[in-house]
Amino acid sequence: MKHQNNIQGSASACSGHICKNSDLPKDPIIQKYGEEKHGLTSYILTLEEMRKYDYPLEGSPVCKNYVYTQCESPRTDSSPLFGLDCEMCLTEKGNEVTRVSLVDAEGRCIMDELIKPETEILNYLTRYSGITQKILLPVKTKLPEIQDKLKKLLPRDAVLVGHSLNADLHALQMIHPSVIDTSLLFARHGGRRFKLKFLAKAVLGKEIQCENKVGHDPSEDAEAALALLRYFIDQGPRKVVELNLEMVLSAQNLMESSQQKSTLQLQQSGVQKHATEPSGIPKPCFLDYLNATGQKTLLLSRKELAPSCSCQNSLSTSNKQILTRALQEVPQSSFSVIQFTLRSEHVAPDLLAEVCEKMRIQLADMLTVFVGPFRKDFCLKSIRREFKKCGPIRSLTVLTETHQPHICIQYDVLEAAQLAMESLNGANVAGSCIKVQRPGTVMMLDCDMLIKELETDIENKGVIYVAGMKKILTETDLQEKFSHLKDLQALFWPRDLKSGKHRNYCFLKFQTSESALKALQEINRQGAEGSQLHSRKALSPSHLHRWVCHMDHNAGKPSQLAHHTLHMKRKQLSTSEQDLRKKLKKLDRSIKKLYRSLEDNTLCVVLLPGVNRVYGSCSGLGLIGIKEENRSSTC
């Protein structure tokens, strides 16, 4: 979805799921083979199928002079597989084979022969066959010799694998009883077939029949067919269906069509390919690709959502009508875009600023710890030194309003504040047994839950925070210091934004969570033995770490003063802003109701647009998650 500056005061919710369980029974692959994995014998063509798809058969009038491979032993799931592919040229008799390749199950090419046709060649079809007059000129090998060689190479229980293998066997004038055709294995509706080039790329991630090569390589095609069969056997029909090959092909065709149209229009307008100016030709959007693949899309709003897209918007007159229709139609759609509107001319910049201020205050509270009590003759320098071991300190303020002195310490990173809470609470510092605690505000009631959520954030998986680095260390020294830790993958050592010098903490990323935990225990064990290093699990994902480093932490205001300022602003809200707040609460209830109605495993995105104006801008907010069974909504 594109965010436009003239669309404010609205919330858009997107949900989508590509392959439903209810769709699986309708797929031709599932209808033919079921969902479970099978051995190779389940995919060998039956006699009826070979007759239906024009395979050479013994006793057929068309195959009167064909050679039989005499591979008559019973087939099992351990029977040997061989990939076969041929290239043809156009002769007076029609298409005649001019090259044949046979590849074994290990991917080794055990036969790659050129063949001299019986009649005169009319067209070498070099673009596809790769055969030229010069290549065939010295060749003396005839088809009967190739037939004899194939009969000797193939074991009695051999299974031939190929893509549209019937054409190759007819060209070779040979009959083989056990074949697997990958063009039929990856079945499509209506009897259509995928091309081998597409399947190799979409399923195996392999490029074959490349444009920069002259002609096809039959050994490469035969190996690709074998690899496709192995994938089908190893992964099973269900996994193949979940690849959603129809969607991939449709999106590819749409892109190619768009590129061809763009090239044609550029040529017609006389613009050369190296021109740097934009052509102005609209590119297909994501919804166009979904429509091209037959995936049902739903757009519900009060205004046109996607004017450049081929999808039709369904306009409604109210949020209530939008919600009612969404509850009915979203479950039937693969992808849905629902836009609610606030019916407000604009979103008050003060209200948006308040939201950002609230988030800054909450983060500042999480970075702050109160420490004490201390004796009246305490040494501030020794206290700073002790707490700095946990991480960089932004500010340290002595509080004298209390009966005994306390100190307010604000750190630069969340890990430092949490490490101080965990390691120094109840410790003896500057001759006093102290208590370490966070501010007692409403916003801090959920602090423990937020800390746990940050620890389990996917970006923090396998990452630990280490404080206590000496300034004299270099990056090389630090890498050597931690080189003994197993499975260490990366090291991030932040710098001070003003001085450019390294900070006294770093982050270590390990390959697994288990390795990270062992490293954490090792570092803390060394700390207990006198080392200056202290460690804990990371809390700050990369984006949050950058935000923390750039925020002004209320420009140095004490936490209480910041809360008081926010409270006074709330009292000064105008009537229109209070009305807007009520509408936002109502909108929140609508989104929560829609979210709870979604199927499990639905991907959900909620976008709250920001504003971009001369007199004040504010970033929007995006939430993303997957609806899970038996998990309460956090919307």
Overall description:
This protein has 635 residues and is α+β, with helices and mostly antiparallel strands. Helix content is 37%, strand content 19%. It contains 22 helices and 24 strands. The strands form 6 sheets. It has a 6-stranded mixed sheet, with helices on both faces. Strands 3, 4, 5, 6, 7 and 9 form a 6-stranded mixed sheet that branches. A 4-stranded antiparallel sheet has the order 14-15-13-18. Strand 14 and strand 15 (406-411) form a beta hairpin. The radius of gyration is 35 Å and the shape is elongated. It starts with 9 loop residues before the first strand and ends in a 9-residue tail after the last strand. Mean pLDDT is 81; it is low at 1-9, 271-281 and 553-558.
How do the strands and helices of this protein lay out in sequence?
Layout: E1 10-16, H1 28-33, H2 47-52, E2 67-68, E3 81-91, E4 94-104, E5 109-114, E6 121-123, H3 126-129, H4 133-136, H5 143-153, E7 159-162, H6 165-172, E8 174-175, E9 179-181, H7 182-185, H8 196-204, H9 218-235, H10 237-242, H11 245-268, H12 286-292, E10 297-301, E11 314-315, H13 319-329, E12 335-341, H14 349-366, E13 368-372, H15 380-388, E14 393-399, E15 406-411, H16 414-424, E16 428-429, E17 432-433, E18 435-437, H17 447-455, E19 463-467, H18 475-481, E20 488-492, E21 505-510, H19 513-528, E22 534-537, H20 542-550, H21 559-571, H22 575-597, E23 603-608, E24 621-626
Parallel strand pairs: 2-8, 3-7, 7-9, 10-11, 10-12
Antiparallel strand pairs: 1-12, 1-23, 3-4, 3-6, 4-5, 13-15, 13-18, 14-15, 16-17, 19-21, 19-22, 20-21, 23-24
Helix pairs in contact: 8-9, 11-12, 13-22, 14-21
